[in-house]
Amino acid sequence: MSLRSLTSSRRIRDIFGNTTQLLRLVWQATPLYLVLSLIVTGVKALLPALMLVVNKAIVDLVIANWGNSDLDWQPFIDLVVMRFALSLLGGILNQVNLYVSQIFNDKFVLYANYVLLEKAIQLDLAHFESAEFYDTLSRAQSSGISYPQKVVKTITALFGQALTLVSLLGLLIQFNWTIVPLLFFTSLPSFWTSVIYSGRRYWMMRRETQAGRLSDYLKQVLTQQSFAKEVRLFNLGEHLLREWRGIRQDFNSKSAVIAERYAKMRGISGVLVSIGFYFAYGWTLVRTVAGQISVGDFTMYTGAFSQSQELLPAILQNIAQIYESNLYVSQFFEFLSLKPQVIDAVYAEPFPQPIRKGLVLQDVTFTYPGASKPTLCNLNLQIKPGESIALVGLNGAGKTTLLKLITRLYDVESGMITIDDIPLQNISLPELRNNIGVLNQDFARYQLSAKDNISFGNLTKRDNLALIEEAAINAGANRVIETLEEGYQAILGKMFKGGVELSGGQWQKIGMARAFMSNAPILILDEPTAALDAIAEYELFEKFRALTAGKMTFFVSHRFSTVQLADRIVVLENSRIVEVGSHQELMSNKGLYAQMFGLQASSYNL
Ligand SMILES: Nc1ncnc2c1ncn2[C@@H]1O[C@H](COP(=O)(O)OP(=O)(O)OP(=O)(O)O)[C@@H](O)[C@H]1O
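Structure tokens predicted for ATP-binding cassette, subfamily B, bacterial (606 residues):
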């Protein structure tokens, strides 16, 4: 099915497609202000028709008493007071409406953002490693929040406009019922023009998501600290800026084509609207001159005509707007409908305390989503409690991937990982993760206080300064923090005012302290010494046994001095475990490990 026919067939259905879902969201966000907003809008909507009726009564009263010297002023006073009261009420309701909509919007935006972020934390790491996910996220973020808000605003306005229109049509029908379809049919082309062109714009925007994200990414490269150094050293600035501008200009020209066609069609359909109005206007004039209706009626009907004439296209325009916004709102719900694949156990078994038998990999195979061949294939391994394992292999061998499976950032494709015979899937996810301390290869550098950076390793102990200090000492991070004027309260990184930037190795020590924060029986250290200087590495070795005593430890390292610390070394190659044993055993095997060790040792002997 072509994109265009898809658009047409979905158009009508999509006009109010997500409205029920959206109204439920609004109701959850702020029921009180939704009701208040509808009441204020509803009352305000009836004022124009009431005003026209009072005006007609005033005009007719004036004409009836034209030149009368002995007239009773009371009916005049009553009508003018009524008119004043109506306009006063209109003014007050305008102010109340402004206030209510402000609070209503603020509450709704907060709630919609909350729901979006809440969904983001429920999703898997796999989502964050896929381009399609970023397209969905980017669409949900860029239009997702503003459009639900727009739809709600438009629906409330539409509700008010519909009430006003019904009350005005109630007046017009007394004049002649055929006037109503006349007004309607002359406004219809303008409505369809809006629907068709807003649809085209939406699909264009959707097709451009990838390009939009690329331009946003280039903007980040040009403006963020992490790229600032290389952008300057490699003179990338001008080149990337040109690329960015090219993408934006391409988008603008596509947008301009649609805007131009839309403007032409709007112009043509606008002429039809005017023809309808002047036809009805002339008709009323003829009947007034013929004495069939009063002058008061003439002012009332022409007022009702002109207001309906403005209102009807505005209503149709708003319906078209709801259609357009609904398309964008669907992107918000598209994001909310994403489901995690790594699912928490429904009837969870407790994490074994202490671990008695150990962790077992049975025929574990894993393929990344979208990859053509497995990254890990039929892995079998038993790790005893308290044992330390070093994972060794060339770049891309799958070491980090294996650690992702143990922490259930991904689930195995086939085979099983168990702890004391309990499959990982049967342990509650938060409990599993509470029992594993982790230092990732690409550990996070939170631009927050040093205390936060360390205590995030065990949130339940976030105010236990003694524990935080102990973790910092174990990781060698205490000396970094001692140099900071504000100690543990110092903000790390340069993103916020007063923040202090650390070196790569200093950051790594902070990351390691985070891993040491919990008393977890399993410890995972992915490249723990990669950024450490020789002294820091030596000090860590000295403490390593004490720090990992009693803990099942997995660590990945390309430094063989570190690897030798492990009880056993597991060598990965071509998706499989090719060697397992102690340093001495593997050296005497003269396999891949011995070969890699030899190469590294020879480079030091130079
Ligand atoms: N999110 C992902 N999606 C698809 N493929 C991935 C993903 N992450 C890693 N890979 C691929 O899986 C393979 C193993 O990657 P992994 O990060 O586990 O290797 P590693 O042994 O830790 O490498 P290194 O020593 O460079 O850190 C690589 O070929 C990599 O391209």
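Residues 1-9 have pLDDT under 50 and may be disordered.
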